[in-house]
Amino acid sequence: MMRRLALDPFTVLLMVVVALASLFPASGQVAVAFGHITTLAIGMLFFLHGAKLSREALVSGLTHWRLHLLVLASTFVLFPLLGLAIKPLALALLTPDLYLGVLFLCALPSTVQSSIAFTALARGNVAAAVCSASASNFLGIFITPLLVSVLIARGAAGGSPLDSVLTIVEQLLLPFIAGQLLRPLIGAWVDRHKPVLKFFDQGSILLVVYTAFSDSVNEGLWQKVSLSTLIGILVISALILAVMLGAATLASRRLGFSKEDEITIVFCGSKKSLASGVPMAKVLFAPSALGMIILPLMLFHQLQLMVCAVLAGRLARRPDSQTP
């Protein structure tokens, strides 16, 4: 139990990067250079996401359309509605800027790697998890900026929702499509080097986090965020996660899904993607606001990993004959 609740190595690295940005924030021309580097890194990150995505795995799970619709409804409908519903509590515990971060969290797509990994550990429908999580991330490129424009009227970096979508398409979708188109040529190489490329994925996110927190620290981030505020973020995150886990479980059982499909719905429909969220935040929000925006996402990310690890381990030990 304690091993499952421990911080994962990537979360530790995130905390180290936040500390570095707090003590040694980039500024001036250094910050400008980091901004250009992070833009290129994000493009390469989504290029690799496209190159890694197996079309065969997606096709094998497409027949479970009811499952995918439920996951998408959980991710892009119920999550945002919950974010709006908890506004009175959130504003009692958090600053208005951090509440914007909570709303941004609620607008994000589901995770891919951890959703699939937890589904596999819990002996769920892995093929459907691959399809559902991947579809969530792809559709999130379009849906998330539209949700952000609705939920966070003043939060976007500027322009109309269409401008936000076009910016996302340019910086994230086009590299993703390029990776998919080149998969027949480079897919085998990418699959062989997934462990190595994972370091590039994580390094890109760490770079964006450092740049984001540098800008926010220069704007006085830690004068606005206290220990009690961090505890408030954890309370709000725990509430959101508990409601979404319960809602996904209840909905899948009421609709008659098998236990394997229920597991897929629970793990794909209750989590949010740090890997997609950090790059999207950089595109959608002003640099000075990024620290406040992604802080709730970073804490929610660790909480969902710990809770889902325990839940997946428990489900893995169930009898084979267990039914929903």
Automatic annotation (TrEMBL):
> A Pfam family matched by this chain, by name?
SBF_like
* Gene3D superfamilies per record: 1.20.1530.20
Identify the keywords attached in UniProt to this record, alphabetized. Membrane, Transmembrane, Transmembrane helix
Residue stretches spanning the membrane: 31-48, 69-86, 98-121, 128-152, 230-251
The record's section on InterPro entries has:
Na+/solute_symporter_sf, Put_Na-Bile_cotransptr
Q: Which domain of life is it from?
A: Bacteria
Q: What is this protein called?
A: Bile acid:sodium symporter
